[in-house]
Design brief:
The protein is built from 11 helices and 9 strands. The termini are far apart. Helix 2 crosses helix 7 and helix 3 crosses helix 6. The chain is α/β, with parallel strands linked by helices and 284 residues long. It has a single domain, classed as Glycerol-3-phosphate (1)-acyltransferase (3-Layer(aba) Sandwich). The protein is globular and about 55 Å long. The strands form 2 sheets. A 7-stranded mixed beta sheet has the order 1-9-6-2-5-3-4, with helices on both faces. Strands 7-8 form a two-stranded antiparallel sheet. Helix content is 48%, strand content 14%. 39% of the residues are buried. It is an enzyme of class 2 (transferase). Keywords: Acyltransferase, Lipid biosynthesis, Lipid metabolism, Membrane, Phospholipid biosynthesis, Phospholipid metabolism, Transferase, Transmembrane, Transmembrane helix. Pathway: Phospholipid metabolism; CDP-diacylglycerol biosynthesis; CDP-diacylglycerol from sn-glycerol 3-phosphate: step 2/3. This is 1-acyl-sn-glycerol-3-phosphate acyltransferase. It comes from Papilio xuthus (Asian swallowtail butterfly).
């Protein structure tokens, strides 16, 4: 049953992708840029509408997330994006952990869909407002996504700390974006918020830093949305054993510094490998 559902949904994505390629523009333009994002959001919503009833058989189960990712990852073919995962063995190890990564665009979620199978038992944290975006938000809720109220930091921290049982007992990884918002400046990372680190320390689980290379191929102001290559680098886990609330600041600095170093290295790598006339950008 599941195989047929996945096959049919995947065929829908590929068919729609073919049609969209025919109507897209080859030259950078505002219309082309916004059309591509519209198609991305439309497909995510369409497929969420199709599959959310299936999640009712096992509501709030992270296995629903993996099923959704297996279907939604095919949207990548529409944009000719290559997601290269490095350090997959770090992400695939069965254990409870807090995964933190940089946040550049809603395309991060598409990248996440493409590596979800490697992480296996994985869920994510999102702002509460997303839950009310039907059908995607509701489907994500049934798939085990954790929603927090960013306008109430104390309450948000309590909600994150309550996930300790899920991580430890069920050996589930929880993915967060500690920058808290999309970073449009591809030259550096934004300051990190502390919620993810409080959660990891409270549960005494490791933090797995993950770095996405810069999205040099998209620029809103210039209407650029080209094909691209994104490296997703998993760093060595950082233990929180024995750490307490007083160690949070140092932990945040340690993780951010490690990710910043790798981010700069990946930036140099992807930009150096581009053709000399490629119109890459440092601002989204």
């Amino acid at each position: 049953m599941w195989e047929k559902i996945i096959f049919c949904a995947s065929m829908c994505v590929l068919t729609f992708s073919f049609i969209s390629k025919k109507i897209s523009y080859s030259e950078p333009s505002k219309l082309s840029f916004h059309l591509k994002f519209f198609v991305y959001y439309f497909l995510c919503s369409l497929l969420a509408f199709v599959i959310w009833p299936l999640f009712l058989f096992r509501p709030r189960n992270v296995k629903n997330s993996r099923l959704a990712a297996t279907i939604l990852k095919h949207i990548t073919k529409l944009y000719d994006l290559k997601w290269e995962l490095r350090g997959a063995d770090i992400l695939s190890e069965e254990r409870g952990a807090v995964v933190v990564s940089n946040h550049q665009s809603s395309l991060d979620i598409l990248g996440l869909f493409n590596i979800w199978e490697v992480a296996d038992k994985l869920t994510a944290v999102a702002k509460r407002e997303v839950m009310y975006v039907f059908p995607f938000g509701f489907a994500a809720y049934l798939a085990g996504v954790i929603y927090i109220d960013r306008n109430d930091p104390k309450r948000a921290r309590e909600q994150l700390n309550m996930t300790s049982d899920v991580m430890v007992k069920e050996k589930t990884k929880i993915w967060l974006f500690p920058e808290g918002t999309r970073n449009k400046d591809y030259r550096s990372l934004l300051p990190f918020k502390k919620g993810a680190f409080h959660m990891a320390v409270a549960a005494q689980v490791p933090i797995i830093p993950v770095v996405f290379s810069p999205y040099y191929f998209i620029n809103n102001k210039q209407g650029i949305f080209n094909k691209g290559h994104v490296i997703i680098q998993c760093l060595e886990p950082i233990s929180t054993k024995g750490l307490g609330p007083e160690d949070i600041d140092g932990l945040v600095t340690r993780v951010r510094d490690a990710m910043s170093t790798v981010y700069k290295e990946l930036t140099k790598e992807v930009i150096t490998n581009l053709p000399s006339d490629y119109p890459h950008t440092t601002v989204g």
